[in-house]
Amino acid sequence: MIRIQDVTKFYDEVCAVHHVSFDIPDGTVFGLVGTNGAGKSTLLRMMAGVLACDSGNITYDGISSYENPECKREVFYLPDTPYYFPNANLEEMIDFYRKQYPAMEKESVFYMAELFNLDMGLPLRTFSKGMKRQVFLILALCAGTKYLLCDEVFDGLDPVMTEAVKNLFRKEMEERKLTIVAAAHKLKDLEDICHNMGIMHKGGILKSGDMLERIGDVIRIQCVFDGKRDMEQELKKELSLLRYEREGYFTTLIVKGEKEEVLERIQNLNPVFAEELPMSLEEIFMAEMEEAGYDICKVLC
Amino acid sequence: MTSVKYYVNWLKEAGRGHVTAFFSWAGFFIYTLSAFFGLQTNTDACFFGIGNERLLYLCAGLGVFSAAAEFWYLEQPVKLDFYYSLPVKREVIFWCRYVHGILHFVPALTVSMILSGFYECGIDTEFLAYADVYVIRSIFVFTAVFFIFYHICVFALLAGGRIVSAVLFFSVIVFFSQAVFKGIGEAYADHFFQTYYRIPFLERLKEVLAPWLLAQRLAGAAIYDRREALTYLPEQADVFAAALWIVLFGLFIFCLQKRRKVENVGKLFAFAGVERAVVFLFSIILSLCLGIFFTGSAIVLVFLVHLLSEGLIQRKKEALFQRKGQLIVEAALVCLVTGGFLAGAGFFDDFIPEKEKLGAIRICVNGLDMSYEEASQNLFGKESYGVERKLAKYKFTEEGLAESLSWLASLKERTDVKPETFATVCYQMKDGTEKYRAYPVDGEGLQAFSRVFETGEYKEKAYPAVLWEDVGENRFTWIDGVSERALKLTGEEKEAFLKKYKEEILKLKMSELTTAAPVGAVVMSSDKWGEKETLVIYPFLRETCEFLRSFEGVKMDLSEYDVRELRVIDVGAADNALSGGVIKETYEAPEEILKWKGKLVWKELDIQSLLYPLDYEREVEAEAVEPESGAVTEIKCFPEKSE
After folding, report:
1. Nearest CA in chain B to A70
2. What's the pTM?
């Protein structure tokens, strides 16, 4: 398990990461979302042991990773612009990484490279941005580490390739309980593979936790009330209303609480029609953030 | 074992770029080839190790280049992210690269020196006696040179957060002492001390604190003599200074590499301490530079310069003047330096050493036994080749020392001096230290110098021929600018001639030199020893002149030759409107030429420009017939001053 405890990082006077604490259970994908300068990359670099924490600590199964090669052997960090040796090809990079990560399987890399139709002999500098990203994702997945930290993980990948990589992630997680921490600008990129998520804003983490649990607690209901009267005030009195939207006859509510109880209370207001709708991860977050008093558009839009 | 494997793996990784290896080995390959060619041509003038300036450049250059190639990654955030995220300690990466840089230098240098040594042994048997020591010393010396520059460059890369600042730090470290000790130290001494000529301690400090000067001294870059090069051993102080540079910067590197933070890459300074040091040094140096002009306002200067340096370096303007303690230390240091120079001025200028502590004294009176051309190039209190040459020549340890000391004491007592010339003095103390001073000398002071001039010790230095003996087999040649005539003398005649000359020279009074210019010279040369000495002949050396006149062909005035033409070039005659103009007159008629009889002195015989000055505003070119060959010779003369 990755444990981040009260981590703070300053760049001179600027606080890049501010008292961030959360846990990432093994075998899950943790999404780190936020705008530019939110502190995602800084947090990932601290997790990778590149930067030292000014306060707090980051541990992998209870062991600090900073300047600890034994611990870092279980962590693979894939930055947004990965470095490769000048004129090196994939085979040379495999040889290099195998010395650092003894569990790396050369055959797996060959297999995946073939799968992605990548030429092993060509220098990496001749590859496109997306191809380079594929190369490093392959190396990261085949490194045999327990933890994988990816910054802007799907940046440069086309939708087909993004889906393929997501499938690879799922497969690796199933097979060897790989834990992935992925940072991205957009929530949509991550929502279908993330079990947990954190939104970073101005160095702080706004929310993190199990999405499935949260989905159980928050519901979206579409209803139609008689006439054109605005029911917002009445609904607020009855329910823990996170979001209220009205378009024509249709009123869409995002409500916190037990599904049966919420529906019963709505029924008490005599709607013409009331039905629960499925919620996306983004909607849950937006609702949560708005509830917490944040202008969510600044974070995610 | 894991750790060893770890290091070996990373050492291999450090060699991935091959840049250091390529340049080191290729550099030494080319150097060795050029050394072979040089040795084949001339073993006397070509040294492959100590004494070779090209090798010095190569080693210092490789020190800088290897450090830059190995540690460039310190300034590249992408590379740092890559390396530091790997399961390896960052110090392993650092030290592996450090060792890798050295690994490709030391073996390449060693191989080059050994091969060159074997080659020279093969073509020059004389070298065999020195080969082992010379090769080993060369390896040590040039390895030290490499390390000095390697460490400085690595330090600069660690201290700077950007390439530009690393380059700046490197330049500052390399040239700092020259700026401080040569620029500021000498400027202050020159400004505050009236008798300042040179302070050897400052010069020594500059040499050992300037890496390039130190490297030059270590490597014997100024050696041209083969035997000296082969037996050269750097001075202990230089070796100590080199070791200090290497160890000190090694320690800095050791400390900095542990504390360097990745997030500081991209900033001007990778450490706050380095920023402080830069502000501190910049403030002090600039304050001291300006302090010469505004001595009384040193503290205000420090205040302003500190503000300027902080403003230039610190990004946050609200942080200005937060380091009040540093500002106080800077002000105190500047006050200490300027105050120290002010307070020490009296002590410096009044210095006359006690005779018991004085080992020797060196004196150069500008213009005495010196041509006008040379004297006019020497300036009061300024170092020059002419003054240095005279100081080396006129060294007194006995009666000359006593008289010189008493003359200098009398000079110091004089007030309202209207200087006619100046004397540069070097007091060589018995403890090995040297103290240099320059004093203005007026007419009376110059006359008083006759006490020194008339000592036997002075005569020996000014007229070294008085020390010559057994000259029976030497050749004597008369020269006067027109002819060069070998004097046909028997061994006894030669001895007798020299005896007469010595007697007259030893009796010579300084006042006599004000009466006439030399009329010619006798060059005494020894075929056996290859030595040569010139005996200047003055007309008042009567017995010597009589002896020489007995030889047919010895003429003691230009007018005794058949002069065909005289061209008088007057550089000072043009009026203000024609400033820089030259008036040239040509005389061909015998009666016109006759007017110049006894008035022209061959330029080479203008050796007493102070005591017997000639008319230096005019130059006369004379065409005279050399009687023996009939050839027309052109000689350049100065006319005597008209009454």
Report:
1. B87
2. 0.80
